[in-house]
Amino acid sequence: MNWDAIKNFFTTAGMDLLRGLIILVVGFFLVRWVVKIIERNEHKMKMEPTLRGFVKNLIRILLYLLVILTAVNTMGVPMTSIITLVGSAGVAVSLALQGVLGNLIGGFILLLFKPIRAGEYVKIGENEGTVKNIGTFYTEIATADNRHINLPNGTLTNTAIVNYSRAGTRRLDLTFSVGYEQNIDKVYEVLRKVVSEEKELLEEPAPSVHLVKCGDNALDFSVRVWVTGPDYWPVNFRLLEKCRRALDEAGMPSPYPQMDIHMK
User: Fold this and answer.
1) What is the pLDDT of residue 97?
2) What pairs with residue 209 in β-bridges?
3) HSE-CB of 169 using CA atoms within 13 angstroms
4) Are strands 161-163 and 127-134 parallel, antiparallel or unpaired?
5) What pLDDT score does 78 carry?
């Protein structure tokens, strides 16, 4: 048995191994300490709660990775070999998890640029509802009939998003039809009276009533009013019913499609 070789191992490679283990233990302790400091002060960050959690987890992962690479390098493993191994593994994993990585990057983009926020009412593709949570991989929205839909973040970054809540106010457009035999001024009078009695409308921009179309069988009048986001649907249903009732009571019912045939 070559005692000199064993002694040389313990005095060189063994010490490197010991130093690497010490770096791992101390490094992991420091990472946990840094993360606790971030958690205690995260309320001071001017970020949304979801983004704060994302950034905190990202910092934790990067610090752990830095500690591990430092320890492995101290143990005598060449960094070029580690980088090559990590690069090869990264390529293989990225090819296998293209969708997952796309959703991860999409979630980061949503949290960074904030096209939507939790609590906002949005329309994304064919889905419409209130944003409940912007997660790392999926965004959850709740529809008006309480269906919860999870949309992949990668899809959201490549889809048109209509945000109804960001401005704080919305314009409500309602259309009512009457026959050609009706007096236009009388229609204006009836619709404007109903609009003036609605208390939840904003004064600016002012409500308006316009003749917007002379159709084949009817005159179409548009009622346009501005409301706050939460009042949109209640006002929509109230005005829709009140205006239609007022027109019917004034002798101006909705016309039905008709065709005149002339026989020669």
Assistant:
1) 47
2) 223
3) 11
4) unpaired
5) 66
pLDDT, tens digit, for every residue of 90-121?
655 555 445 667 777 777 788 778 888 888 89
Q: Give the sign of the dihedral formed by CA 229, CA 230, CA 231, CA 236.
A: positive
Task: Indicate if the pLDDT at residue 211 is higher than 90.
Answer: yes
User: Angle of helix 13-41 relative to helix 49-74, nearest 10 degrees?
Assistant: 170
Whether the Cβ atoms of residue 53 and residue 2 lie closer than 8 Å to each other: no
The contacts found for 96-100 with CB under 8 angstroms, 24 or more apart, are 99/152, 99/154, 100/137
Q: Indicate whether 27 pLDDT > 50.
A: yes
If you search the block for the tokens 């001017």, which residue do you land on? 46
- In order, the DSSP letters of the chain are --HHHHHHHHHTHHHHHHHHHHHHHHHHHHHHHHHHHHHHHGGGSSS-HHHHHHHHHHHHHHHHHHHHHHHHHHTT--HHHHHHHHHHHHHHHHHHTHHHHHHHHHHHHHHHH-SS-TT-EEEETTEEEEEEEE-SSEEEEE-TTS-EEEEEHHHHTTS-EEESSTTSEEEEEEEEEE-TTS-HHHHHHHHHHHHHH-TTS-SSSPPEEEEEEE-SS-EEEEEEEEEEGGGHHHHHHHHHHHHHHHHHHTT-PPP---------
CA dist list (Å): 264 to 58, 185, 261: 83, 38, 10
Residue 264 binned pLDDT confidence (cut-offs 50, 70, 90)? confident
- The reported pTM is 0.60
| CA–CA distance, 101 with 109 (Å, rounded to integer) | 12
Neighbours of 97 (CB within 10 A): 12
> Among 145, 149, 244, which Cα is nearest to 191's?
244
